[in-house]
Write a structure and sequence with these properties.
The longest helix has 26 residues, at 102-127. The chain has helices at residues 11-17, 34-37, 41-55, 58-62, 64-68, 102-127, 129-133, 141-164, 187-201, 220-235, 258-275, 284-292, 342-345, 355-358, 410-425, 429-442, 448-457, 462-476, 483-490, 493-511, 581-585, 613-618, and strands spanning 20-22, 25-26, 237-240, 251-254, 302-306, 339-340, 359-360, 362-364, 370-372, 379-381, 405-409, 525-533, 536-545, 559-562, 568-571, 576-579. The protein has 22 helices and 16 strands. The strands form 7 sheets. The chain has a 3-stranded antiparallel sheet. A 3-stranded antiparallel sheet has the order 13-12-14, with no helix packed on it. It has 631 residues and is α+β, with helices and mostly antiparallel strands. Residues 383-621 form the RagB/SusD domain.
Length: 631
Amino acid sequence: MNKKILYSLLLSFAMFFTACENYLDVQPDTGFTTAEVFKTEKDIQSAVAGVYTLMLTDDAYSNRLAFVFNMNTDVEMSGVTTNTVNVNGSDLACYEPKPYWTTLNSTWNAMYKIINLSNDVIEGIEQSDLYKSASKDTPSAVTQLYGEVKTIRAMVYLDMIRIWGDVVFRTKSSTGDENFAVGVTDRNDILEFLIDDLKSVEPLMQYANQLDYGVERASRSFNQGLIGLLALTRGGWSLRPDTDNPASIGQMVRGDNYELYYDTAITYLGKVIQEQHHDLKLGYRDFWIKQNNWVTPVDDDVLFSLPLLKNSTGEYGYSIGIPITEGNHSYGGASGNLSLCGTYLFSFDKTDLRRDMTCAPFSYNENLNQVIRLDLARVAVAKWSKLYMDDPLGSTSSKGTGVNYPWMRFADVLLMYAEAVNERFGPRNDAQECLKRVRRRAFAQTNWSEKVENYVSSKTTKEAFFKAIMDERAWEFGGESKRKFDLARWNKFGEVIYNQYYKLLNWGRVANGAYVPGIDQVPGSVYWKNIPDPNNASRTILDIQGIDPILQARPAGYTELVFATSWYALNNETASYEPRNDIKWSFRGFINFNNASSISPNEPLRYLCPYPSKVITDHRGAIKNYYGFNY
């Protein structure tokens, strides 16, 4: 479906309709009545559109939720080169966010604006004559809108829980005479409420192919998929505070009755699969090319896509994508601020079609020639690029690309279902088939026997199959900022980051001639040369050698780019060989050059953010930071 402008309601309507900006800043009574605002279906649709409008701000899903709240993992990575506090927010990447970081406060407020308006709209629909008279046995336009807002509210609460843990929980419209100095609610209680809430509206919602704007609205399939994700989050692990010792990092805890929630995930993710409203019809490259051209089919991979607006909102293709230098061309600039870890590029099978559509070891200069760009934390995300656009945005364009944010994909549903089934029953046939469906798109059909059938059938134990799910989600969702949430619910965060620190360190050591058991060879250097672009004779692209296979010598005619060799070098001040600074400090809130010998992979990792300082002040002692945050 070609991208359309989502509804006609402006942000001013949304702000007019919201009872309060945040929990302590209550606005005066607006004077409207629900009968006036929700008189017709069009009125209700406009009110629902106001919720989406609030989601598209920079402080919410247009910017912050897209990539700012990203942490360094074995997939996405931002190199941190100092052991001192950085006030611009990069400390979040290395697990040392600060409560005074202003973006924390602005995002907290932006998310509650969405929640508050959702509560207002839900209550208004419930009180409307249209909803009261609507059948509660079959879906209709009005019940769809009602379920739509509840689904969006649950999505926002889930993201807040995954960022902050326990949060303030409200499901009622705000009034002017209540006490807003309230505390937080246990995240499991919130998740349980949301699961039941979404179950209650799921039968009354419509599928994307029945909706105008398709997957740019929360459909029945997205509701089902979100129930599955909520259930996996509730059934998984999370970091819990030591309330007796706020200076403690806390501990990873799994909630009671987790099996029940894995069963719920199996049921609702299974509905998405069995009802066959979504599939993986498009090839992996074709899917992403269409995304960059504002085209999202209703019956393919995307279940829900944030409807960002062209020339207005969104940073996919700009901050998230292949960097481009502005020049005498029609594509404008792109910063490519979100990067992938250099080792991640080398983790892919050489025949995996996703690798080159996920990892770009290059940028484009002002003449649109490719320039080598490969280092420990500089691989660009190739899924998005302004150069994919058939109708470029213009020579001075920057962000505001309007390329949608695919918040949930069918591939996600398939892999979550496989994960849930394996947790309860081991690698059952249906779980294996889900993994196979994802891998069939990842490899040419000629490779299916080896890379799909044999690969999956070799994962005969629960542990081996789970490891395959971990790997597959890394390869499938690189650059989509899902890894941090996956690692948390699996209780694998500390283990993965511990191993990643030593992987970077040991690659540098081996590249410099050291022997490390289990590591035979690493890419000490890669080699490149410019060749004509076969699709445009006026440009050049890169021919890069040394990614696969790894080379130990420079081929004739190629230029050397030192890679892992530079990661471990002589420190002239100490006269000893040491890892480079971005290895020393990129994970410093968990493991770093000073504490590595005392860290265990089984220790809890502080992946949550602190409550903003202003929130703590405004809530007058009802909210308190734990996990060792300074407050």
